[in-house]
Automatic annotation (TrEMBL):
This is Phosphatidylinositol transfer protein N-terminal domain-containing protein. It comes from the Eukaryota. Signal peptide: none annotated. The lineage of its organism: Eukaryota, Fungi, Fungi incertae sedis, Mucoromycota, Mucoromycotina. PANTHER family: PHOSPHATIDYLINOSITOL TRANSFER PROTEIN, VIBRATOR, ISOFORM B. Residues 1-248 form the Phosphatidylinositol transfer protein N-terminal domain. GO terms for cellular component: cell periphery; cytoplasm. SUPFAM superfamilies: Bet v1-like (SSF55961). GO terms for molecular function: phosphatidylcholine binding; phosphatidylcholine transporter activity; phosphatidylinositol binding; phosphatidylinositol transfer activity.
Length: 264
């Protein structure tokens, strides 16, 4: 098992990030879907646990077989690579679990995320994980403005070093030490447990997954900043309405591969 803690510093408040994250997630789902692959949202509803925790529960299926490494596709049965995601969003703490029906308990990706206002990634153990996990944990700092992304994913309009928010005046994040100076500021502490039990492939696949997650977090948070003028000022109800509309569009798009046009 790999344990990685990704720390992402963002030029917004913790309260703003709640809306920004949901907005960017909805838009990313639309971007990933089409031609028989993508995201299918089965549940998106409030929940309350016996201990009093309240939040939003989502259950999604990710059909992204073409993005799985070829050496895994070569040995996996057709249709066996779908991922099932359950998420409990009790913001500012969130828990997400991804599993695969074919591999069952031999595969899982678990995210534990804590969102902390006025933090610049300095907290040593924001998620209060046990000492045994701390010894295995690798900390990865993410700089949304300067970390490299794949050339195929680069868009000038999604480059924080070039984008300035009209509504907030934030950006561009062009200074090398912007993380130390930006206001407002918050940090996402994202602890990720990656487990892939398959003799001969475990180390290779777990490393592949960790790299893919790292790249995903960079791209996602670059977009989140650059879309500030789209999500800024939205309410949670605005987000729920957007999610409902996008779900309808995704249900069509995943089956037909037709383009979805929805203004950001």
């Amino acid at each position: 098992m790999l344990i990685k803690e990704f720390r992402v510093i963002n030029n917004c408040t913790e309260a703003e990030y709640q809306v920004a994250q949901l907005y960017a997630t909805a838009m990313a789902s639309k971007e990933q879907t089409g031609g028989g692959e993508g995201v299918e949202v089965l549940k998106n509803e409030p929940y309350e646990k016996e201990d009093g925790e309240k939040g939003q529960y989502t259950y999604k299926i990710f059909r992204l077989a073409s993005r799985v490494p070829s050496f895994v596709r070569a040995v996996a049965p057709t249709g066996s690579l779908d991922l099932y995601e359950e998420a409990w969003n009790a913001y500012p703490h969130c828990r997400t679990v991804l599993k695969n029906g074919w591999m069952k308990d031999n595969f899982s990706i678990v995210y534990e995320t804590q969102h902390v206002n006025n933090s610049r990634g300095e907290l040593p153990n924001a998620l209060n994980i046990p000492e045994a996990d701390l010894k295995k944990r690798e900390i990865v700092m993410i700089d949304v403005a300067n970390d490299k992304i794949d050339a195929k994913d680069y868009k000038p309009e999604e480059d924080p070093k070039l984008v300035k928010s009209v509504k907030t005046g934030r950006g561009p994040l062009s200074e090398p030490d912007w993380q130390k100076k930006c206001e407002p500021v918050m940090t996402c502490y994202k602890l990720v447990y990656i487990e892939f039990k398959w003799f001969g492939l475990q180390t290779k696949v777990e490393s592949f997954i960790a790299k893919a997650i790292h790249n995903l977090f960079i791209k996602f948070h670059r977009q989140l900043f650059c879309w500030t003028d789209s999500w800024y000022g939205m309410s949670i109800q605005d987000i729920r309405d957007l999610e409902a509309q996008i779900k309808k569009d995704l249900d069509v798009k995943i089956n037909e591969g037709a383009p979805v046009t929805l203004d950001k």
